[in-house]
Amino acid sequence: MPTTALVWLRRDLRLGDNPALAAALARGERVIPVYLHAPDEAAPWQPGAASRWWLHQSLCALSEHLQRLGSRLIIRQGESLATLRALIAETDASQVHWNRCYEPALIARDSRIKQALRADGIDCASHNAALLCEPWTLKTGSGEPYRVFTPYWRRLGPQLAERTETAHRSAPAPAVALDAPPAAPPETLPPVPNAIDGLAVEALALQPSIPWDQGLREAWQPGEAGAWQALERFLIDAICSYHESRDWPAEPGTSRLSPHLHFGEIGPRQILARIREAHLGSGSGPSSGSDSGSSSDPDAVFADQAIAEPYLRELGWREFSHQLLYHFPHTPSEPLNPRFADFPWRSGDTEPPLKAWQRGRTGIPIVDAGMRELWHTGWMHNRARMIVASLLTKNLRLPWQEGARWFWDTLVDADLANNTQGWQWSAGCGADAAPYFRIFNPVRQGERFDTQGRYVRRWCPELAKLPDRLIHQPWQAPASLLAQCGIRLGCEYPAPIIDLKASRAEALAAYDRVSASARTK
Ligand SMILES: Cc1cc2nc3c(=O)[nH]c(=O)nc-3n(C[C@H](O)[C@H](O)[C@H](O)COP(=O)(O)OP(=O)(O)OC[C@H]3O[C@@H](n4cnc5c(N)ncnc54)[C@H](O)[C@@H]3O)c2cc1C
């Protein structure tokens, strides 16, 4: 009887640099890749509608890739432990391998499963495919988790930089294991016996029943090959100017790798290795083994490793968010800073302003542009995310949890660690947060980061004819000019639902009340 290993694929939907797959291939003669659909096990953070859309496409891509290599993805639905046990019995598997997830509900589930399977006599092993550095690895001098990014990055950042031989010899054992290059996908895989059956991806009903996904289909190519194409495009077109252009929402200045990273179609070790390879100029192309489709060679663009630093820093924020979620598992619903538990959020009927914000009809152009980009493409530029979050939590004084929930349902990159950190940072109640009193003025933000109004014109075409100097504040335009541009505020485009100056003052007063009550406690 051949040794059989199950590889339980979850949010590691790739074949390159997949430690669970590599371990199964090293130790099992028969390797069976399985995907188990049990969304309720992630409750209360089951994948939202946009994430389900992505998952469907990504599973299709993975399934095709496995078939090209001679294997098959076995999809089953139902409680994970029971389904694994059934598969183990059917296949005579003696091993199960998976890559770790870091959400609190999934950590608890996986621990239970590991314990139960080990009690059954199964060899169970979990691996790291998602992070450069396990969230329990880096601690402050006093042994606490980091709550501030800068000192965290001071520890992590140097480990990502290319180490010289001397530094390598004298450095303490690194938290990031980067010495071995990430593995390319296998060239072939052992076949899965015909007797083992599974569901078609369609049976999981992940696709929307009414077709709202046209914009998503136009914007994305989910799957491992799509991830590598996005990375190569970024290395050719954008990494050199990333430090500046990353702030311009109308520019294609960022990597747009967030959904690929979330679903594990590419891993941060692979991104880092490819950046290093391009920097050193020694590489002959991506080690993805996927059809990256790139024709020009980006190696020449790297004159200096410093070019990559601003980008690596963002990957550092991703690591930081994961270690926060790991150490503070209550933060998806509660503020990290307990002072904010009693924050006086807006009272009365909160539905109209929340709905206006969700639909991109606040009457504040840069905010509406961001919210419409999100609705249409399942993604929003980071600068716009910060602006819309500030308006919701500070000017509208609606709880950050409302915003986080909306993002959870509409983002293709919805990620519990990054989303929680992003919202708490924006609301001023999280780790290393923007102080509550630093309230973005969306008009100034628009003028600074969308100077010519290209982002607003794209997503709010009803404002397209306004001149640049008024595009971010149409309410300042004389009635005659509005008429000339075909705009009636309150009809084609809403009048602002909030007075920015007055709401700012109210938010600051609310913050003062929280600070004062914290002082008297
Ligand atoms: C309110 C709010 C909510 C957010 N929700 C999410 C979310 O659900 N999922 C998500 O992946 N990101 C989230 N972010 C972070 C950030 O906006 C996105 O990661 C980024 O816009 C993705 O685009 P990109 O891949 O082109 O990023 P790039 O600029 O190319 O960055 C590369 C990668 O670094 C990571 N990264 C970048 N910025 C951050 C950040 N601030 N925090 C953590 N990781 C970061 C992402 O994995 C990203 O793919 C949120 C930010 C805010 C302000």
What is the molecular shape? globular
Rounded mean pLDDT is 90
* Radius of gyration from CA coordinates: 24 Å
Helical content (DSSP H or I, runs of 4+): 40-55%
Summing up helix and strand content along with how strands pair, one would put the structural category as mainly alpha
Describe the structure.
Its cofactor is (6R)-5,10-methylene-5,6,7,8-tetrahydrofolate; FAD. It is an enzyme of class 4 (lyase). Its EC number is 4.1.99.3. Residues 280-299 are annotated as: Disordered. One of its GO terms (biological process) is photoreactive repair. This protein has 521 residues and is mainly alpha-helical. The protein folds into 3 domains: 4-127, HUPs (Rossmann fold, 3-Layer(aba) Sandwich); 131-181 and 223-329, Serine Threonine Protein Phosphatase 5, Tetratricopeptide repeat; 338-520, DNA Cyclobutane Dipyrimidine Photolyase, subunit A, domain 3 (Orthogonal Bundle), CATH 1.10.579. The chain has 21 helices and 5 strands. It has helices at residues 19-27, 49-68, 80-91, 104-119, 149-160, 165-170, 214-219, 224-237, 242-245, 258-262, 268-280, 309-327, 351-359, 365-377, 382-395, 400-410, 416-427, 442-449, 454-459, 479-484, 500-520, and strands at residues 4-9, 30-37, 74-77, 95-99, 123-127. It has a 5-stranded parallel beta sheet with strand order 3-2-1-4-5, with helices on both faces. Helix 4 links the parallel strand 4 (95-99) and strand 5. Helix 15 (382-395) packs across helix 17 (416-427) and helix 16 (400-410) runs antiparallel to helix 17 (416-427). It is globular and about 85 Å long. The termini are far apart. The model is unreliable at 163-170 and 282-303 (pLDDT under 50). Bound molecules: flavin-adenine dinucleotide (FAD). Flavin-adenine dinucleotide (FAD) binds at residues 246, 254-258, 261-262, 314-315, 317-318, 321, 382, 385-386, 389, 407, 411, 413-415, 418-419, 421-423, 426.
